[in-house]
Amino acid sequence: MADQPPGGLAGRDADLHPTGPSSRFKSLLPLLLAVAGVIAWSVSLSSIHPYAAPASGLVSQLSVLWWLGVALTAAGIVLELSRESPRTIIMIPTLIALALILHGTLPATEPVPRFSAAYVVAGFSDYIGRTGTALPRLDVRMSWPAMFAAAGMMAKAIGVSTTWFLRWCPLGLNLVDLIPLKVIADTCLRTSRARWAVLAIFLASNWIDQDYFSPQGINVFLFLAAVAIAIRVFAAGGRSPKPVQAIIDSRSWLRLKLFATNLLQLPYGATPNEQPETDTTPGYRVALLVVLLVILGASAVTHQIPPAALCLVFFGFALTGRTSLRMLWVFTAVLVWAWLSWEAHTYWAGHLAKILGSAGQIGSTLNSTVGARLGGKSFGRTLVTDSRLFGAALTWLAAMVGWWALWRRGRTMWTMVVVAVAPVFVAGAVSYGGEVALRVLLFSLAPAAVLTASIIDYAPLRKASVVFLLGVGVLLLVLFPLNRSEERRVGKECRSRW
């Protein structure tokens, strides 16, 4: 081991176990900052009273200690990310600390979870768990009962009420989402620093409030897991199908590409950042393919939007040569259509005009959903709404800057562009009410985080890139409690009524 180079195993061991007390303290400083942040956060909880919050939400009740907890934890993460190779043993607890502060404040202070929809889901889960049957004529959500059935059976198996899942579900889902997101980051990015930064950006940007006990919360994990397997195990390195490649090689396309690259000040020839197909055993690939198909099946019988979004994502992957499973989008489409025709016929029978009436109207659908949330609000709610619009714009702007900066350095990342854009087209294909814009943003957060972190995905780092990413991170953290604010929708009477 003495002959190991500084960057080898011996160097890493010395890094984790420094010799002097001062070096040991400096090595553990990021973790100590995160622990101090959690302590400050826990002390601040006594001053938070959710049901006494004004229209602007809990942000007006957050004490200096709460903000100190956020600052200390964020400082620990930034300090560890300043290393050339952040340590897994340090990054995991610091990220958990950040998730606990951001996504655990409401569960820790609310005697009763606030969303009435969560109690409806718990009721559905309890009914299916006891009777083994769904009631699609009672509620449209019962036409996609897989999540309800799973929760009902799990609650029955461990001997608890289905309402037991409600309180800490937001924190649990955000932590679970980090697992496939880390796989995606490891596939798309080259440096360890940028790969870990993706997770912190995702936690700070996920204020969407759709991570309560619900099918869409579970489907974010299924969505990310399916994308992770498709691009990690079944990558294709950017080899497009022959018909598509013929278009790309045509003179008209080359002229358009030359014009676009000159307009955006991009290099004409850029190396695809997507990884080639990994060297795995046939047995491993078959096992992961089975897992992928199970995920797609579970998504198809759990919710309407995520499987449709996955179908579009896989179609984009096939066109751009980002996965070797080029017919996967067809399989996903068949699953969606089969379930809709078989079990969900109660949903669409006699309501086709309502379901398909907004097809192709992407702009009007998004504008109507956003516009409906802007009008007729008090000053506090207007402040929250404006902050959310700014937060959404910041997330997309940071992703576009990261994509542009990556291309300026001679690399492209079309995989994440496809994942981010595909859900937008779902909004124009289905009629889903006022939350469709939030759902579109929800499924674009992960690819946006990867694109944003790509701005520091090279060495040596440039000061401008670091300052930009730090500025985005600070803004996201400052806006998070205001964006996460929501009017108290449910009280104790809702729980007793359930």
Would you write up a description of this structure?
With 498 residues, the protein is mostly helical. Helices cover 67% and strands 1% of the residues. The chain has 22 helices and two strands. It has helices spanning 9-16, 21-44, 64-81, 88-109, 116-131, 146-158, 169-188, 192-205, 215-232, 242-248, 251-263, 282-300, 305-320, 328-342, 345-348, 352-356, 362-374, 379-408, 414-427, 436-453, 463-484, 492-497, and strands at residues 271-272, 411-412. It has a two-stranded parallel sheet.
The side-by-side strand order for the widest beta sheet comes to 1-2
Main sheet properties: 2 strands, parallel
Question: Structural class of the secondary structure composition?
Answer: mainly alpha
> Outline, from the CA principal axes?
globular
- Rg value: 24 Å
Overall residue-averaged pLDDT value: 80
Proportion of beta-strand residues: under 5%
> What is the total tally of β strands?
2
Give the terminus-to-terminus CA distance: 64 Å
Give the SSE string: HHHHHHHHHHHEHHHHHHHEHHHH
What percent of residues adopt helix (DSSP H or I)? 55-70%
Runs in which pLDDT lies below 50 for 5 or more consecutive residues are 1-14, 487-498
Number of helices: 22
